[in-house]
């Protein structure tokens, strides 16, 4: 029996290049082998291979030109390739058939869910190496069509799937993690449903226990998975929401902090946003909030939370913070998305006004503006900007005009109506 | 180990694929229930209703009460590989007869050829058979000398009898133990022997070669190209021909390696095979192929002219040229061990004749033929013809490619070379079928090539629906011919041709790829057109054109063996040299090359002919042939 298994597996190396399709969490990939050309014409090609090669070319052509009917017609002729005994790359062709078929099914107007199920089931079992991946994709498709229960069954089945040596493979383990994560996410969704339907009526009923059950199932997996470096945004949110609901604030905060500050994780601005939002929701002291936003500012200087950050800094008593706020807003305004934002300019005005209470405010401003004075006027204060601003937002013109002289004292271009003729 | 064997025994009769994963690999659990060893799916042991539209997950398995747990695997007849081939040959011949070939093909010709082949290749009817170590070929027929004695027994007996009569070859049951599995008895020895003596044993490709020889023997109007086209379109069984073997003859294991076909052999390879077979068979002289025979270029050219929508008048010129080349003589076309022991490629030769004729009449040098194309009316216009043909050719090529893409090659029967592989193969087949069915339903179009009725013509000209364009057969060539000294001659005066030196056949196979870029485009297009029509490589047609030209021009100036390679080079230049000459229409200057001499000859040759001379011979033929189609 072992022989059969080996035969079905084909050679191990053949599948290495499948990493090309791997998810974002994959941190490896340094040792990728170049995929072999699967469908090149060879001088001594048999008629069978010629047929399948040309057929594949036609399918690809039809797909590229969105001729789905034609693609489906040729696809009906292609599966004979699966029976090819003369190739050691049968797994690759299985994958090819799987991906082509699902793509055509996605686009073809007459495709039904039964077709999907049939194709997914067949492809799942015709090569163990893709089993988990196809399970995952299958459940995604079921989810898209609103079959949450079915999708969850699929994922649960995939979760308990074992195939000897093969399931110990690193790549398979990664997919298993994904499958667990999505299964837990579905648990969370069912939990949410139950929360909204039952919780109000009777908080201590059986259904509440049932709900807690789902929470337990989900949290066991999620807790484990969220330790793995990666981008887990939706999973984090759902986990935190559940923890929050059961008032396990400490754990929630821990998870979020870990997600934001663990260096093994890829840099992820959202991690800090979530942490900030959580802290804000739980009325954490301002200093903590500022600390979180400070890191976010380094990662994404144009983030929408920067307005809040500057206002927090402005409210602070310390002198340094006002200067920091000035820097934050100036940096924001360098980005196109903030360039003509009234709130940002107003905030800048507020900061300047607050600075002006101090003696050395001019030094501070010119200090901050030193590196910007070369390009700021051209970016903000030309007559063209004046015209567009006055058309779109007259209030902005006022704010900007009042700041012109302060920010750029030796301005040559003019941000006013008068100089147009000059 | 023991357990596995037990399981095998229990599950031996149960060969249904698993519902979950399509594997056929059943084990018996402790509770006595069947489970799939591949996906561990436990089933109620059932007999499943075969339903190809079955989708997993949506249908229930129906249970039927216990049958006998172990089913004895049925054993087929014990048979020889040769019998298998005999059966396939018989089916092929029957298919050809259904298509209209003379019924003599099967009993009188093919059967004899087959017997002769078996005898000459030492597989039967001989004292020292090749594959003797397993099968004892002795028996009543062994001391026969020639195949002629067997003419009484024909392949066309009824099925049962055929098998019975052919078991004469194997002398079944005398000293041979029954093989471990059913299937042919000598596949293994056949394969090893095949590796040792690769040429003499039967292969699938040889069936086509044999049939081709038989067709030439009875002078049937089917060229090798036609035969291969019929094979490719599935009118003659070849791909998966073993499916038609009777139930008693089961293919097992190694048999598949012998009978499985994954490609349709090329024109060139089958011709080569037939040539080799001819030497093995050592046949007496073939029935003569005279100019009344449909394989003779005189009539075959008419068919190609019709197919390509060329004017009938051109046939006259083809016949003249044929005479000039000495190709009208039947000895050139008849296989005879004394005079000609090569199998002529009738189709390719005729195509080459037409190409040379067109060169003589139209020029085909990218200049002359277009200069004459201005006229209208009842005159043949090459420009118009080219446009029509080019459009039709592109369409036909596209259709051919689409058909190639849609062609289904795999057998409906289980094909696996070893027992262990079988379960994998069955599973793959099921998977492929399911995917195919799914997409057939989705696209509401069955997979595979749509069967069309067999036709000797690829193009269709005339006014009917689906025609490739209007017919030009009735148009005259007056536009390109002028009356000189009372004789119709082509208007342009020179004929170009590439260097005609012979080169070493073994060393340099084809110069076509090297010369192709320098040849006139129209000429290359003509070659491509004909090579599409005949499904041969343009290179081999090009060689044939050169051969015809050599016959036309070189016959009077015998080719000298002393010509060296350096000369080859200078000679290739003469081609480009003489091309502008057609424009100036001056006679070639005093050049000492034998080639230029031949050029002057070509010019005067059509002149020397009176127009009436060939008419007496060819005209009536032309008429009759036209009424045929």
UniProtKB/TrEMBL annotation, chain A:
<dbReference type="InterPro" id="IPR052669">
    <property type="entry name" value="SL1/TIF-IB_Component"/>
</dbReference>
<feature type="region of interest" description="Disordered">
    <location>
        <begin position="1"/>
        <end position="47"/>
    </location>
</feature>
<dbReference type="GO" id="GO:0000120">
    <property type="term" value="C:RNA polymerase I transcription regulator complex"/>
</dbReference>
<feature type="compositionally biased region" description="Basic and acidic residues">
    <location>
        <begin position="38"/>
        <end position="47"/>
    </location>
</feature>
<dbReference type="GO" id="GO:0006360">
    <property type="term" value="P:transcription by RNA polymerase I"/>
</dbReference>
<dbReference type="Pfam" id="PF14929">
    <property type="entry name" value="TAF1_subA"/>
</dbReference>
<feature type="compositionally biased region" description="Basic and acidic residues">
    <location>
        <begin position="7"/>
        <end position="19"/>
    </location>
</feature>
<dbReference type="InterPro" id="IPR039495">
    <property type="entry name" value="TAF1A"/>
</dbReference>
<protein>
    <submittedName>
        <fullName>TATA box-binding protein-associated factor RNA polymerase I subunit A</fullName>
    </submittedName>
</protein>
């Amino acid at each position: 029996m072992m022989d059969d298994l080996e035969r079905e597996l084909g050679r191990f190396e053949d599948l290495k290049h499948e990493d090309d399709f791997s998810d974002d969490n994959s941190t490896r990939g340094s040792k990728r082998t170049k995929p072999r050309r699967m469908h090149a014409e060879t001088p001594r090609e048999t008629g069978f291979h010629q047929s399948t090669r040309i057929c594949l070319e036609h399918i690809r052509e039809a797909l590229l030109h969105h001729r789905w009917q034609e693609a489906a017609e040729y696809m009906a002729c292609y599966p004979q390739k699966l029976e090819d005994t003369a190739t050691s790359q049968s797994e690759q062709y299985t994958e090819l058939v799987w991906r082509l078929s699902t793509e055509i099914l996605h686009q073809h107007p007459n495709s039904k869910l039964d077709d999907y199920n049939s194709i997914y089931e067949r492809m799942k079992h015709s090569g163990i190496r893709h089993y988990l991946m196809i399970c995952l994709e299958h459940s995604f498709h079921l989810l898209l069509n609103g079959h949450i229960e079915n999708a969850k069954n699929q994922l649960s089945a995939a979760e308990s799937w074992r195939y000897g040596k093969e399931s110990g493979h690193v790549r398979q383990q990664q997919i298993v993690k994904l499958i667990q994560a999505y299964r837990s996410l579905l648990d969370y969704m069912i939990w949410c449903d139950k929360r909204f339907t039952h919780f109000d009526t009777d908080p201590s009923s059986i259904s509440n226990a049932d709900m807690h059950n789902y929470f337990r199932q989900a949290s066991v997996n999620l807790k484990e998975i969220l330790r793995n470096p990666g981008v887990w945004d939706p999973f984090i949110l759902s986990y935190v929401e559940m923890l929050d609901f059961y008032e396990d604030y400490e754990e929630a905060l821990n998870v979020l902090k870990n997600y934001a500050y663990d260096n093994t994780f890829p840099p992820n601005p959202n991690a800090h946003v979530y942490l900030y939002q959580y802290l804000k929701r739980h009325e954490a002291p301002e200093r903590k909030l500022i600390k979180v936003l400070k890191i976010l500012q380094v990662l994404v200087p144009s983030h929408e939370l920067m307005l809040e950050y500057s206002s927090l800094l402005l409210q602070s008593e310390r002198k340094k913070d006002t200067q920091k706020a000035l820097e934050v807003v100036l940096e924001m305004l360098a980005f196109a998305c903030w360039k003509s934002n009234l709130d940002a300019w107003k905030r800048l005005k507020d900061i300047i006004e607050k600075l002006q209470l101090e003696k050395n405010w001019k030094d501070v401003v010119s200090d901050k503006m030193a590196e910007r004075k070369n390009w700021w006027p051209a970016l903000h204060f030309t007559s063209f900007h004046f015209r567009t601003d006055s058309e779109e937002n007259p209030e902005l013109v006022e704010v900007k005009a009042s700041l012109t002289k302060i920010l750029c004292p030796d301005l040559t271009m003019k941000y006013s109506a008068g100089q147009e003729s000059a | 180990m023991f357990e596995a064997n037990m399981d095998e025994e229990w599950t031996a009769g149960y060969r249904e694929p698993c519902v979950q994963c399509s594997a056929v690999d059943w084990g018996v659990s402790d509770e006595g229930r069947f489970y799939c060893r591949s996906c561990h799916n436990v089933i109620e042991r059932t007999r499943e209703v075969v339903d190809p539209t079955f989708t997993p997950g949506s249908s229930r398995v129906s249970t039927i009460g216990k049958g006998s747990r172990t089913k004895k695997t049925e054993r087929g007849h014990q048979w020889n590989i040769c019998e298998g081939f005999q059966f396939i040959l018989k089916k092929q011949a029957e298919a050809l007869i259904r298509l209209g070939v003379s019924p003599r093909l099967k009993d009188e010709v093919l059967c004899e050829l087959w017997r002769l082949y078996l005898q000459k290749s030492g597989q039967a009817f001989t004292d020292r058979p090749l594959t003797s170590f397993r099968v004892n070929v002795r028996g009543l027929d062994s001391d026969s000398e020639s195949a002629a004695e067997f003419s009484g027994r024909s392949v066309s007996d009824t099925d049962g009898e055929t098998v019975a009569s052919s078991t004469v070859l194997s002398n079944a049951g005398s000293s041979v133990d029954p093989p471990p599995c059913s299937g042919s008895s000598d596949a293994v020895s056949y394969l090893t022997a095949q590796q040792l003596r690769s040429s003499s044993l039967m292969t699938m490709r040889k069936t086509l070669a044999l049939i081709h020889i038989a067709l030439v023997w009875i002078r049937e109007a089917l060229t090798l190209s036609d035969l291969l086209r019929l094979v490719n379109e599935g009118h003659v069984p070849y791909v998966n021909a073993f499916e038609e073997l009777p139930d008693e003859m089961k293919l097992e294991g190694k048999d598949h390696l012998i009978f499985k076909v994954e490609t349709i052999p090329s024109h060139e390879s089958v011709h080569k095979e037939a040539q080799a077979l001819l030497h093995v068979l050592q046949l007496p002289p073939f029935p003569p192929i005279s100019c009344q025979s449909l394989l003779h270029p005189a009539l075959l050219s008419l068919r190609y002219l019709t197919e390509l929508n060329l004017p009938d008048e051109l046939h006259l010129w083809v016949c003249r040229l044929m005479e000039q080349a000495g190709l009208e003589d039947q000895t050139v076309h008849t296989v005879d061990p004394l005079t000609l022991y090569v199998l002529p490629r009738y189709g390719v030769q005729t195509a080459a004749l037409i190409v040379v004729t067109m060169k003589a009449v139209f020029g085909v040098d990218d200049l002359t033929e277009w200069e004459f194309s201005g006229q209208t009316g009842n005159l043949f216009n090459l420009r118009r013809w080219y446009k029509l043909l080019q459009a039709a050719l592109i369409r036909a090529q596209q259709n051919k490619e689409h058909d190639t893409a849609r062609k289904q090659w795999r057998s409906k029967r289980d094909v696996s070379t070893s027992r262990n592989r079988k379960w994998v193969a069955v599973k793959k087949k099921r998977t492929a079928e399911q995917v195919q069915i799914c997409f057939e339903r989705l696209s509401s179009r069955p997979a595979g090539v749509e069967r069309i009725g067999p036709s000797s013509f690829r193009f269709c000209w005339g006014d009917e629906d689906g025609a490739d364009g209007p017919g030009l057969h009735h148009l005259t060539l007056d536009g390109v011919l002028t009356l000189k000294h009372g004789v119709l001659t082509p208007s342009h005066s020179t004929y170009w041709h590439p260097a005609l030196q012979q080169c070493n056949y073994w060393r340099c196979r084809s110069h076509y790829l090297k010369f192709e870029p320098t040849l006139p485009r129209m000429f290359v297009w003509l070659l491509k057109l004909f090579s599409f029509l005949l499904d041969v490589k343009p290179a081999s047609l090009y060689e044939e054109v050169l051969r015809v030209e050599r016959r036309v021009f070189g016959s009077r100036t015998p080719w000298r063996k002393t010509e060296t390679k350096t000369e080859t080079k200078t000679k290739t230049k003469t081609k480009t040299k003489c091309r502008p000459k057609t424009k100036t229409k001056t006679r070639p200057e005093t050049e000492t090359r034998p080639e230029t001499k031949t050029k002057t000859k070509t010019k005067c040759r059509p002149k020397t002919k009176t127009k009436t001379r060939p008419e007496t011979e060819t005209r009536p033929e032309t008429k009759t042939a036209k009424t045929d189609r």
